[in-house]
Amino acid sequence: MSIVDTPERRQLRELTRSFVTREVLPHLDDWEKAGEVPRALHASAAKLGLLGIGFPESVGGSGGDLLDSIIVTEEVIRSGGSSGLIAALFTHGIALPHMVAAAGVGIGGSLGGMLGGTSTPGDDDLVQRYVRPTLAGTMIGALAITEPDGGSDVAGIRTTARRDGDHYVVNGSKTYITSGHRADFVTTAVCTGFPGSGSISLLVIDKDSPGFTVGRRLEKLGWHCSDTAELSFVDVRVPVANRIGEEDTGFLAIMQNFAAERLSLATQAYATAQRCVELAVRWCRDRETFGRPLASRQVVRHRLAEMHTRAEAARAYVHEVAVRVAAGEPVVTEVAMAKNVAVAACDQVVDQALQLHGGFGYMRDAEVERHYRDARLLGIGGGATEIMNEIIVKGMGL
Q1: Chain region(s) in the chain for CATH 1.20.140.10
Q2: What pLDDT digit, counting tens, does each position of 254-313 carry?
Q3: Is 23 a catalytic residue?
Q4: What are the phi and psi torsion angles at 168 (to 5°)?
Q5: How far apart are the first and last CA of the chain?
Q6: Which of 75, 261, 367, 369 is catalytic?
Q7: Bridge pairing between strands 141-144 and 185-191
Q8: 141-248 in CATH: which number?
Q9: CATH code for the domain defined by 252-395
Q10: H/E element holding 288?
Q11: How far are the Cα atoms of 91, 120, 125, 129, 143 from residue 104, in angstroms, in the given order?
Q12: What is the CATH code for 7-135?
């Protein structure tokens, strides 16, 4: 038994698997075609306590920590879900933590109260207005950082927020925003001073704010059940009370939450690899060629062994790093390595799994085909592989 394999976490796995089997699998293909998951799914997940895993009970969550969140993510995919489903259903995992931390509450090993100094009445109010309803499944939140010409350059944000009395006037645009089409509010990174990391702030902007426009739904290679949108802000007036933490502290808040986001993506990567190993083993046992099962051929058996090894090794390393993050250790370099290791394993395993499925693997009826498409984003989102490599070499002292 390990820290990520306790009786309580085994029960959490069983609960998650039951939820996916009952609430997700009968409908996932339809959601892929529709381009989004229904709002009712959020309510169902909240009722079981899955939506609030990793968030303290004091803010409406279900308790637990980063490791419990990882268990849920892993089991959703291992049960037949997808990384696209994770993105759609658990977007609050990147939309809410800044608010919770600014209110002085720790999440999964993070240090509550470190974002923007001490908690203020305004931060507590944001918890009541946005965090609690979202964890209850009645609201959907999104995080808006990426801009059309910004990519991974968080310090280069051009969306501006000019102070005007008790409001900010926001102008700019965001793109590739996960759940941006369905979101009721968006935690938005803005520039509140001169360009640069020292002038980044976070504002919570309501979808129905005048001047806030949700653009076209973006069509993607994968993650089809996760809606993605462009956002536009033209003289949008946002109350100062909707600022998270103190002004100009947003860059630090964003950086501190990257560890959890990157570990979630790493988990999605190795879990996808594990699921594809399972699918490939099942296919190779059942599929016969020239009078023999594929699984009886040495070249196939060895390929499956290599796939299994890569997936399990990635899982072990991600778990090791996650335990350290949950304990509060500053392991920025290790998180970057964990993401890259898991993504590389996923890329190799998913490709080989589809190859073993042959022509059927290329069909939309094959689950492995969906994983093949979905997996491609994991090396881009949350910081591209190249950005992770820069973090790693800096950690090496280069």
Answers
A1: 252-395
A2: 998 999 999 999 999 999 999 999 999 999 999 999 999 999 999 999 999 999 999 999
A3: no
A4: -110, 145
A5: 38
A6: 261
A7: parallel
A8: 2.40.110.10
A9: 1.20.140.10
A10: strand 288-289
A11: 21, 9, 12, 16, 20
A12: 1.10.540.10
